[in-house]
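Let's practice the habit of predicting before peeking. Look at the sequence and jot down your guess about where helices and strands might fall. Then scroll down.
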Amino acid sequence: MKMISFADGMSVPALGQGTWMMGESLDRRAAEVAALQEGIELGLTLIDTAEMYADGEAERVVGEAIAGRREAVFLVSKAYPQNASGRRLRRACEASLKRLGTDRLDLYLLHWRGNVALAETVEAMEELVAAGLVARWGVSNLDTEDMEDLAAAGGEACAANQILYNLARRGPEFELIPWLERRRIPVMAYSPVEQGRLLGHTVLREVALRHGASAAQVALAWLMTRPGVLPIPKAASIAHVRENRAAVDLVLTQGDFAALEHAFPPPVKRSRLEML
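Done guessing? Here is the structure:
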């Protein structure tokens, strides 16, 4: 499997598992846990979650899924911006750890920029690293100017930026992604199939048909060809996670790339980073 490396040398699989909208229904909980466990068995060992998702219930779903197999998993969670202060971040992190049933996070992210000064958040994140609660920290939904502000605030240790990025949302390629590449900061791409809205696109379906694949697999495979990009699709069933895993082995042709470039052209000017 292709791997993505952080600046500190840690490597993770280039396809992870997202959990946005998991934990919202007890009726689906067992299937969600089983899907995450199947993903781990298939090598999709990076799992991303957040205290925001289902008010912490997604973290509890992940906790159930990784029970007894924590050492096999690279665990990511995210803090609300209002919890990113020196006074509140440790409490938020410890609450996430309790819900996850673990003593540490491999990566802890600021979910989006809020009113807390970035310098204060950086200091609070570094304190979590020093305390052994977090191995490394990063951000989510920060645009180029935000990243420059973060660096100026002492945030050179930022390990990742999780952003909205897919075939239909290529704006970050103009400025933000090159900025991150120069600093060896991986991109975690959330909503890689645009919450399913990409799946009916004619060109995606045509490319998929040529390979005997699905449109979702093509969208994921395209992202995995981008340097330093790690998509984190959600799969709430075993069949869906197996479909996602098969995207790792899908090899797109030059003709496929040309068709996708025509249907989803790259940006020609800077645009504001979008969020969902």
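How did you do? The chain has a mean pLDDT of 97.
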